Amino acid sequence: MPTLLHEAAGRLFISDNTFRLYDPDVMQHPEDDGDFDATATGLVALTASGPLIVCGTHLGQVEVTAQLWDRAPDLSGENSQDKHDKQDRRDWHDRRVWQDIAELTVPWSGNTLEIWGEGEPEIPLPLPGPGTYRLRVHARHRDAGEDRDENTPVETVLLQLWPTEGPHEPPLVHKADSTTGALWREDQKEEKEE
Amino acid sequence: MRTRNTRKAGLVAVVTAALLIPLTGTPAHADGDAGGNTSGRTEIKMAPVKKITADAPKTADAPRNDGATGAHPKDVTCAVNQFTFDRTTSCYSGTGTIQFKDASTGQVNGTAQLAMTVNGKLDPRNRHKADYTAKVTLSRPTVPEGWLGQGAVSFKCATCRATGGGSQLLTPGTTRTYTFSVDSVGEELNTDDWGQRLNITFPRYTPVNLETIAGKVRCDNTPYVSPQKDGGCVFPQYTPTWQVSVSDGRVAEVAWHIDWAQRNLQHPWGAPHKGYPLHRTMDPALQEANRKVSCKGVPKPPADPDEPEKSCDEYPYAASYEGASRNLDYSCQFLNAKHNSKEGSLKKAWQNSQRVLEEDAFWVEVVKPAGAVAPPQPRGPVGCGSS
Known about the structure:
The complex is a heterodimer of chains A (about 190) and B (about 375).
Chain A: E1 4-15, E2 18-22, E3 44-47, E4 50-54, E5 59-69, E6 100-108, E7 112-116, E8 121-126, E9 131-140, E10 155-164, E11 172-176, H1 179-185, H2 189-192
Parallel strand pairs in A: 5-10
Antiparallel strand pairs in A: 1-5, 2-4, 2-7, 3-4, 6-9, 6-11, 7-8, 9-10
Chain B: H1 8-19, E1 40-46, E2 50-53, E3 82-85, E4 89-102, E5 108-121, E6 130-139, E7 150-156, E8 160-164, E9 166-169, E10 175-184, E11 190-202, E12 205-211, E13 215-220, E14 232-234, E15 241-245, H2 252-264, E16 278-279, H3 284-294, E17 310-315, E18 331-336, H4 337-353, E19 361-367
Parallel strand pairs in B: 2-3, 15-19
Antiparallel strand pairs in B: 1-4, 3-4, 4-5, 5-6, 6-10, 7-9, 7-11, 8-10, 11-12, 11-13, 13-14, 16-19, 17-18
């Protein structure tokens, strides 16, 4: 039965529709020029520095929760055990709550993962160690506008990580309902040739 | 006339032998000498050295991936009698003449030529590992003592620790190399002058002391810009240039918008060397205030199924102190949403690589082929802040 080992949450201030997962000993990798390719999932891209999440919000707040699991949690949540036993958080197991869900394989060379918006870190997540992880990203309220106010829902993202072994699995899209996701899944090859 | 032995070892022996002879009667001394007085003094006259910044490299010269946006500076090239620097590299080059003078009469007994260059390379991702290389060449001495100069190069700074340098015999015509590894100690943000001193001792003459022009170096451990544990250093007096290309399919619409804004607003914000640099901000409150003025409330054009999704782009950037909440001379345009996001992500990555910190200046250069014209837009840029 998959077990939730650690959870951290917070609000990030983001700019340019993106936030990043960094190894604090590397941060932006010297070979990372800021480009990213989110066409496989419309939600998450893998860069030289680590995963990058694309959002519908251009500049503003994003609510992020990060979880470390010992193995892949079930999407519907039927067979998962929440160590922290928070009844009021059970709805995040239910895939109906999310607009988009996708996952991909992430190699990681550090012991910590930090989630960074613009500026100071908000959310550190300790990992068991270097290795290969699977990252599942859930997002909702992606289409509520690139600029939001206090009356607009805050874009919400849930990140789940667990260690994996064996050959790298390709990216997988479990659910893709948002127009924001459709935008980022569009092939840019046509634009580059203009 | 003394015949010079072309083999260096033999030559040194001849010169050394000459030094055992009293100065009186030695051919290198022109007329009248003190006879038996063995002390002299040196003077060094260096050509004036100009301190200049290197210009940002042009598209054609900069090594880069094909079609990529962003500047990838090369090391500065050294020009004689200049101190040149960009964001992370510097070169000092000085030339001059050493005069060997009689201590009592001041008469010039002879001369030698001196050339010194120092290449500096800072690491914007590690403040503890800057590399400096000094090269010293002494040539054409006209007194025997000039063949036996011992040159020592040392590193000068207030808040750094340098290892390397050393002392070498300056055999005329031979370039001697001295290397340094420089550590900016601590984790505080500090600004310091880093220079070098050359000391040459000659037999029977006072030593020569030359100080190079120092470069102003700033080192810090600002989080987010790079791993906080290592920090990094730059030459802060150099304003780096963000280059955004109209030929780059990822960001072209933003590039054309900036091009329009720099040519049509009251001031050419960010255009290199035109007097209006931008200054970076990472402050969420300022960015939101800028964006609120430039983009909120501006009616979005109706979605066109034949056009990519649009988002509001503002210039000067919301992530700058010249953004709309502080400067009504701005432009906004609804353009390709992915271009908008990508340009911001690429720019931030470039700013971090150049250690452009809060309030640091940067230029914005639109790279476009000669004669290029913006493609027609369904809704062109407007000076949103202008009434």
